Amino acid sequence: MVILKQPDEIDKVQASSRIVAETLNVLRERIKPGVTTRELDKIAEETAQKRGAKPAFKGYRGYPYSLCASVNEEVVHGMPSNRVLKEGDIIGLDFGVYYQGFYGDAAITLPVGRVSEEAARLMRVTERSLYAAIDQACAGNRLGDISAAVQTTAESAGYSVVRDFVGHGIGRNMHEDPQIPNFGKKGRGIELQTGMVLAIEPMVNAGGYRVKILRDGWTVITEDGSLSAHFEHSVAITDNGPEILSRLN
Ligand code: MF3
Ligand code: CO
Q1: Is the peptide bond before 178 cis (omega within 30 degrees of 0)?
Q2: Band of the pLDDT at 249, cuts 50, 70, 90?
Q3: Candidates 23, 37, 61, 68: which one to mutate for ligand 1, based on the most atoms within 8 Å of Cβ?
Q4: What is the 39 CA–ligand 2 centroid distance (Å)?
C-alpha cells in the first residue's frame, strides 16, 4: 500500500533529506587517498547527530554502522572498515537519517583523487540515469516510466542495471511501497500520484548485472568484479512535478 503524503509531511521528509544532503557534502570534502571508510562513518554519524537527527541505518536489520561505503566493485551496503581509500578508487556513500518522525535517504558516488576515464564515465551515466528517472516522477505517469528511464540510460551507454535491489517509497518508514526497480517498461506499473515520496536509486554496473553478497552478510559486489556506481535522491511528486528533497539549496 502506497502512503500518500500531505504537503506538511513532505516538508518533514525534506528536513530529514536536507540533513542527509548536508552530511554527504561534508563527506565529499573528506574523500581523499589515505582516509578509511570507518573515519567517514564517524564523520557521518557526528554530522547527523549535531543536527539532532538519528542515523537511520545503524541497527536497521542489525546493520552495525551509520553509513554504507561501497568501493569499486562493491555495489551497495559496503561496511565501513579500516580499508584505506587509494587514488583511483570510486566510493559510493549511502546515508539516511530519522528526524522529527520522518526519514530521508540519499547516495552519491565519488572519485578518490584522479580516476580512470572509464570510472568517471560510469559515475556520470549513473547520475544521469537518476535524473532521467526523476524527470519521469510526475503525477499521471507510471512507475515503469521511472524504471525504464534508468534502464535505457544505463544500457544505451553499454552498462547494466542491478536487478536484486530496488528503490522505495519513504516517509514515516525508511522503506515503504512502492518498490522501484531500476529496470522495466514504460507505461507499466502503478500510476504515480501527487503526494508520493520516492527514494529513487539506480545501481549501475560497468559489466554484467549479476551481484553477490559477501560472507559478512551485507556487502553486495558485482559477480564479475566490474565497477559499480550508485546515486539516490528522495523525491516528492507534487502538482508542479518532481521535487528533489535531498538536494542542497
Ligand atoms: N539506503 C539503503 C536503502 O535505500 C539502506 C541501506 S541498508 C542498511 O535501502 F541496512 F544499511 F540500512
Ligand atoms: Co534507499
Answers
A1: yes
A2: low
A3: 68
A4: 22
For residue 105 and ligand 1, the question of a CB distance below 6 A is answered with yes
79, amino acid identity = M
- Residues 175, 227: contact at Cβ < 8 Å? no
Which residue type occupies 223?
Answer: E
* Model confidence pLDDT, tens digit, residues 13-49: 999 999 999 999 999 999 999 999 999 999 999 999 9
What is the CB neighbour count within 10 angstroms for residue 178?
18
Cell numbers for 91? 566510493
Segment 139-166 mean pLDDT: 98
Give yes or no for residue 248 having a pLDDT over 80: yes
Give 115 Cα–ligand 2 centroid separation in angstroms: 26
Distance CA 153, CA 148 (A): 8
pLDDT of residue 84: 98
Distance between CA atoms of residues 53 and 150, nearest Å = 31
The atom number, within ligand 1, closest to the CA of 165 reads 9
How many CB atoms within 10 Å of residue 247? 15
**Sole residue written with cell 500518500:** 4
C-alpha grid cell, residue 125: 551515466
- Write the pLDDT tens digit of every residue in 182-239: 999 999 999 999 999 999 999 999 999 999 999 999 999 999 999 999 999 999 999 9
In contact, 165 and 76? CB cutoff 8 Å: yes
The fourth-level CATH superfamily of domain 7-240 is: Creatinase/methionine aminopeptidase superfamily (3.90.230.10)
